Amino acid sequence: MPEFVSNNISTINFVLINIALGLSIYLTLAVGLLSLANAGFMAIGAYTVAIIVTRAHLPLSIGLVIAILLAAMVALPFGMLVLRLRDIYLAIATLGFGEIVRITALNGDKVVRLFSQDKDLTVFSGAEGITLTYTTPKVVLGLPDTTWPILLFVIVSIYVLATLHGSRYGRIMASIRQDETAASTLGINVVRYKLLVFVLGAAIAAGAGALSVPIVRVIDPHNYVFGRAVDILAYAVLGGMTHWVGPIIGATVLTALPEVLRFLKDQRDVVNGLIIMLSIIYLPSGLADPRIWALVKRILSIPGRGRTTMGTGAGP
Amino acid sequence: MTPPCASGEGDCMTQLLQQLINGIWQGAALALFAMGYTLVFGVLNIINLAHGATFMSGAFFAFLCVTRLNWPLWCAIPVAMIGSGLVAVLIDRLAFKPLRSLTAGGLVLWGGFILLLVGLVGDWGPPVKNGFTIAGAVLMLVGIVEDYRTNRPLRQRDVPHLAPIISSIGATFILISLAIGMFGAQVSRFPPNLFPLMPYQITKNAVISPIQALVLGLSLALMLALILLIKRTQMGRAIRAIAWSERTSRLLGIDVDFVIAQTFFISGALAGAAGVLLGLAFNRLEPTMGNEVELSGLTVIIVGGMGSIGGAALAAFLVGMIRVLSVAYVDSSFRDAFVFALLILVLLVRPSGIFGRSKTVRA
């Protein structure tokens, strides 16, 4: 492994996981939905894999597939129920969902024991969480074998989003975000696209949660509290909500920043909160704002095309 | 933990009265919190997610007064209310006002705020630290004064409707983190003997402790005061006028910005009072104590009908009762699950709230 990679491998892992999480919330924001359920779906993914790996001793890949399917199966009926709510109401309902997932993880064992004969059956391990034994990851092609799946997952997610963005569906999503009523009068089935995006976002969040298991190794409910949902939101807000490059930039900056700000110790959240506030107030289109890129291009005097490739508010 | 009344049916019935009393005093404190929440929503149509952090700040203001300054409690509670009211006004100025209109004063205020945070958080020697803090505070004052002197904004703004939610989440992070820096992440407690512990007997097997009686009495008094303020005074009239139409109120000569600041002050003071009272009743203060009550508060204002103060008060008693009864008869760890089940149910079945008017369906 190159020295830079081996020194910062945990930061790199978390940057990749957070990019995937940022992309998952970007999907819902791209149709104008504020869903704070992603931390909950991440928890579903992580717990599914942790349970499958530790209790059933199956490999991670099977766990990943089951985790994604399970999250999608939960997201579909939940989305059907709540997606007809608008802005703040949806945010609150999804916040409630995240809390219910957390409470389930915390107290699930009591319910499980109630229904089974075994009084010592342990599935979720409550507040202690599930701990995986540590094995030194093997280095394959210059990266640890725990990093490769995350990298591949992120690349696949980006590919899917980029394809969506440039396709008819991307334009449909942008039109729903800008004016839902106008979009529906044009014959777009708004509810169906919202549901599609919600389920896809849940699947990506669950995948990120699942792949984070070998890295964090201790899966406990405190990882998936309200603050986690806010972190994920911050990636998309800082980066920008109109293009998929936004959450990638946002997640990278916000994950690497605490390493730079290590001297602030437990007060790093001040900077986090400050960045969220400043970027939503003074930089509402995020760092991936086409105007900023146009400015950068002008300063570097790169002959740009008439329209930037970053996509305008109206989509490509 | 097994429910306290698992031993037999008879116990449950005798305990019921006690549980109802607990539900009422907790509901009363929750009502204080939720009324300020819903007041801001009614006036500005925004959810102030930093309301929970304001609640926490009230509790810690009182804690500071009692432990560091050795003030008596009757003096600490009003001071805490004023302090948390000012915190709420500051939250409005920093998180919400720049989203309504950009002003020169607002920019100066933000610059001062950043300096203040650099001073508070940074790891420097006392002279540099104090210098930054004082310079920041002075600059913030200049910004606020400047805002009042010139009321012509640089630019009116039309931001996406998600923006206030997101910026108030940012404000919550800053407040919680500052509280962790000052008081530590662990649980702080008021000194013992602050209050007599001997409970009053109400009936043969129902008691209420003095502190719980104080919570109930003070909450009811403040609720009444708020309702009178909104219904009977000139200030309340102005608040209701802005809730009806900000534009018309401005045309009629109401100083909209000032009235909005008053609204935030009232809302913050009520949240702070709730913070002190619940902090005293459970004797448990921690920087994240606002998060839990925040979620219960959201349930309350939705069940009560967004913007309806009376509805919020009634719904708070309902939610308080559900929490207490689920602790007593099911399991303490599931109390929030019941609250959220109620929340999602109400959102789906009757989004205008149980006690709200169904004239306009808002969700």
Mean pLDDT of chain B equals 83
Strand content of chain B: under 5%
- Helicity range of the residues of chain A? 55-70%
What are the secondary-structure elements of chain B, in order, as H or E? HHHEHHEHEEHHHHHHH
Q: What helical percentage do the residues of chain B reach?
A: over 70%
Describe this structure in words.
The complex is a heterodimer of chains A (316) and B (363). With 316 residues, chain A is mostly helical. Chain A is 68% helix and 3% strand. Chain A is built from 13 helices and four strands. Chain A has helices at 3-7, 9-29, 38-55, 60-82, 87-115, 147-166, 168-178, 180-185, 190-216, 226-239, 245-260, 268-282, 290-300, and strands at residues 130-131, 139-140, 143-144, 218-219. In chain A, the strands form two sheets. Chain A has a two-stranded antiparallel sheet. The two termini of chain A are 39 Å apart. Mean pLDDT of chain A is 81; it is low at 306-316. In chain B, the strands form two sheets. A two-stranded antiparallel sheet of chain B has the order 1-2. The two termini of chain B are 38 Å apart. Chains A and B meet through helix 5, helix 10 and helix 12 of A and helix 3, helix 4, helix 6, helix 11 and helix 13 of B.
